[in-house]
Every structure is written in structure tokens, then in C-alpha cells.
Design brief:
Length: 324
């Protein structure tokens, strides 16, 4: 018998009587399975939202602004991102005995500060609508937009399009111009880009006043992938997120009390995410969460649970340049 061909030649062999129906079907199944496996392999390598390998050689500046709020930027400050938007009204500085610098003490001071950096993109990432995260959100967007700065915002799509629709209107902001993806925001598994930054929405086990899902982010900035937890408890799918996105850095809530996970669970989250660097946030900003010692509690928990992770301990206003 002549060697079997592939693809169209199988049909020719069958028509010429060189192979029977059963052999034809068996050969086509083998061929189809091989093509399917090859296709799946290519998909796994290029699937949007997945990481082909952990990023290396990146640099990002992280400045803690108190509570769960942080400023992330490339070293030249051409790309700036804000994890939530409670800045000049932020009460997270008092227990540290630290005075707010002018750039964070008022709306005007903040806008002048950002404008002075001459950024190419400013990305405001909203995790949820509790006051210690959204408190200055609309004023921030108003001020940056009025100053002609290249600002865009991202948040869970239903919260943005439905829950906050009246607030955008009252603030005189057109979501189609200031919200990513032409006003649609992003949902879980979705992607948003601004400047050279990329944000992906990931779950958070928490709540929203408007009833829509709370969220965290995976943010690519300066060659670093940062997991921004928002407010959350520890949950098992963090392992999957770590495998899928392979972040370098975690900015993670540690405040415990009635609202979020504490230092031990935050350390476990860092272990599951596989990060090498971590910044503890969301503590010492109200009387119901852990006080100023929470960051050292987190450092101790990391030493026990994930000793390969470096804890970057800060007071509000401090900056760290993190390299991966």
C-alpha cells in the first residue's frame, strides 16, 4: 500500500480505493487532533491577558498616599497611575504624625503637581465606591481634565456605566472622553490601555455601595506588573491569578478589622501571587483598622510565609523605586 497522504490527498486515496472508510476516518482524526493541539499551543502562547513569562528589568516609583491609595509612575514620571482617588481629604496621614505636602493637601496643589511632571498619560484606577477610595475621584478628574492633562480612568464596567452615571453627569464629565474603552470601562478578563500602561481587572472579595462588583487591577507600568489588591479578603483564586499574570509587585491591603484581610493573609496573598516585592497599604487611616504597626506585622508575616518577598515599608508621602 502506498503511504497515506495528508489533507486533500486523503480524499484522493479514498476515491482511488487505496484506503477504506475506516482508515480514512482514523487518519483524519489523527490529523485533526494534531492541528487542534498545535492551535491550542499557539493560543496559550498568545492569549490576551496572559503572561508568557514574568517581567524583568523594570522600574516603577511607588508613593504611598495614605489608606489604600498609591501613586505609581515610571522613573521619568511620563506615565503616572493612581490606585484610587482619596487624596486631599485622605485621613491616613494623621496617625503617623506626617503633614501632607502641598501637592496632596488640596485639589489645586495636586493638579499643579501633576501638570509639573508633564506626563504623557495619567491613569486613575478606581477599585470601588467606598469613600476612602472614591472620595476625591470626580474632583480629581475635573481638575486634571480642565488643566488639559491626558487623563483617563478605569473601573468595573457596570459601576462606571450605571452606578456612577449620574455622578459623572453632575461633575460635567463625559465618560466617552475620560473613561477607557470609549466610556465602557473594563470587566473581569478585560483590558484597558492608556499611554504605555495596561490595566486588567481582577476580582476582589469586598463590596460596593452601588451593588456592583468590587475589583483589583493588574497594572503594567515601567516594565513592572503590579497587583493592586484594592480592598479584599484572601481567596483561593489568587493562586490562579498569580499563575496567569505573574506579577512582580503587590500593593496589598493589610488593615484587618471589619473590612479587609490582615497582615498574615496579605502575606499569603503575596506568596500565591509569586511576587518579589510588596507594599502594605490600607491601614492606620481610621479607628477600626490596624494602626501604624501593621506594616511591621506584615513584614514579619512575610518572613515566615513568603521569605523571598521584600516588604517596602513606608509612611504616607514616602517613595520607593522598585526594580524587578
Amino acid at each position: 500500500m502506498e503511504p497515506l497522504g495528508r489533507g486533500a490527498s486523503l480524499g484522493e486515496d479514498f476515491a482511488a480505493g487505496r484506503i477504506g472508510r475506516r482508515a480514512l476516518l482514523r487518519s483524519m482524526l489523527v490529523l485533526g487532533g494534531g492541528l487542534a493541539m498545535a492551535g491550542c499551543g499557539a493560543l496559550a502562547q498568545t492569549a490576551p491577558g496572559s503572561a508568557s513569562g514574568r517581567m524583568t528589568g523594570g522600574k516603577v516609583s511607588v508613593r504611598w498616599l495614605g489608606g489604600g491609595v498609591a501613586e505609581l509612575a515610571t522613573p521619568d514620571y511620563k506615565q503616572i497611575a493612581y490606585l484610587d482617588a482619596w487624596v486631599w481629604n485622605n485621613a491616613g496621614w494623621t496617625r503617623f504624625g506626617v503633614s501632607k505636602p502641598p501637592e496632596y493637601a488640596s485639589k489645586d496643589g495636586f493638579v499643579q503637581y501633576v501638570a509639573g511632571k508633564k506626563p504623557e498619560a495619567v491613569f486613575v484606577l478606581l477599585t470601588h465606591d467606598h469613600g476612602d477610595h472614591i472620595g476625591d475621584y470626580f474632583e480629581m478628574l475635573q481638575g486634571l481634565t480642565a488643566a488639559g492633562l491626558p487623563v483617563m480612568t478605569a473601573g468595573q464596567s457596570d459601576l462606571i456605566r450605571k452606578g456612577l452615571a449620574d455622578d459623572f453627569k453632575a461633575a460635567g464629565l463625559d465618560p466617552a472622553k475620560v473613561v477607557v474603552n470609549s466610556g465602557a470601562g473594563i470587566n473581569f478578563g478585560g483590558v484597558a490601555k492608556h499611554g504605555t500602561m495596561t490595566a486588567r481587572l481582577v476580582p476582589a472579595v469586598h463590596s460596593n455601595l452601588h451593588g456592583f462588583p468590587s475589583a483589583g487591577f493588574m497594572l503594567d507600568i515601567g516594565g513592572v506588573r503590579a497587583y493592586l489588591s484594592g480592598d479584599t479578603d484572601l481567596y483561593g483564586e489568587m493562586k490562579t491569578l498569580g499563575e496567569r499574570y505573574q506579577p512582580n509587585l503587590a500593593i496589598v491591603c493589610v488593615g484587618d478589622g471589619p473590612f479587609t484581610m490582615g497582615p498574615q493573609d496579605a502575606a499569603r496573598a503575596c506568596q500565591w501571587m509569586g511576587v518579589s516585592q510588596a507594599v502594605p497599604v490600607h491601614f492606620a487611616h481610621n479607628a477600626l483598622v490596624l494602626g501604624t504597626s501593621a506594616s511591621e506585622d506584615f513584614r514579619g508575616a512575610l518572613a515566615s510565609i513568603a521569605p523571598g518577598v521584600t516588604a517596602n515599608i513606608m509612611k504616607p508621602g514616602d517613595t520607593r523605586l522598585i526594580q524587578t
